[in-house]
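Researcher: Quick test of sequence recovery. Tokens follow.
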């Protein structure tokens, strides 16, 4: 991959990471509920989900999802159901302040946080279709493809590491100062609603004909 091509993709990857979506909501929700150090594990799951999408596209399975009505609808509605389920769970979460190191028994395990985040990005055909539209513009078909896909995956992973850190610390430092049960309940319902909105937007998403 030419340096100029990579720089163009690097700029595009920042826009991809910063744009609000289910990943940003998940990062802020994790920061609110678990603080930065523990909540940041959600970012690792989001990146693994992105890499899974890149693998799907690189193997040609992304084209199947994009062109097959059945495959697209299956993945799409799995994603919708999962986001709505996350929203309901967040909405019904107890109105307790952000957990601390002394609350080890009440903490969600890091593994479950990572797996939940992986699912958010993995069952999102919108991401697959987006990668199918964007990635080919930066690929040189005359050169080996594997190194280029690795560069693309690493670039997307790096920008997400930085951007999601910002979302997580914002929630942990700013929203985490809320101590009133009423405020916590309001924030839980706000994030729960955002997950449902993300699911609803995904439900409206249609593959290009």
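Model:
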């Amino acid at each position: 991959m030419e340096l100029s091509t990579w720089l163009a993709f690097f700029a595009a990857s920042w826009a991809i990471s910063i744009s609000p979506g289910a990943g940003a909501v998940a990062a802020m929700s994790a920061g609110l509920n678990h603080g930065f150090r523990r909540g940041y594990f959600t970012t690792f799951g989001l990146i693994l989900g992105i890499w899974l999408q890149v693998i799907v596209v690189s193997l040609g399975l992304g084209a199947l999802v994009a062109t097959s009505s059945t495959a697209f609808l299956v993945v799409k509605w799995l994603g919708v159901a999962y986001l709505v389920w996350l929203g309901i769970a967040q909405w019904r979460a107890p109105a307790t302040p952000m957990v601390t190191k002394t609350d080890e028994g009440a903490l969600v395990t890091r593994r479950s946080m990572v797996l939940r985040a992986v699912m958010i990005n993995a069952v999102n055909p919108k991401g697959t279709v987006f990668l199918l539209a964007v990635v080919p513009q930066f690929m040189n078909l005359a050169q080996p493809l594997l190194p280029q896909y690795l560069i693309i995956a690493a670039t997307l992973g790096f920008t997400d590491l930085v951007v999601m850190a910002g979302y997580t610390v914002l929630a942990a430092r700013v929203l985490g100062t809320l101590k009133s049960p009423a405020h916590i309940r309001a924030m839980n319902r706000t994030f729960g609603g955002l997950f449902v909105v993300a699911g609803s937007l995904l439900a409206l998403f249609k593959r290009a004909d």
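The chain has nine helices and no strands.
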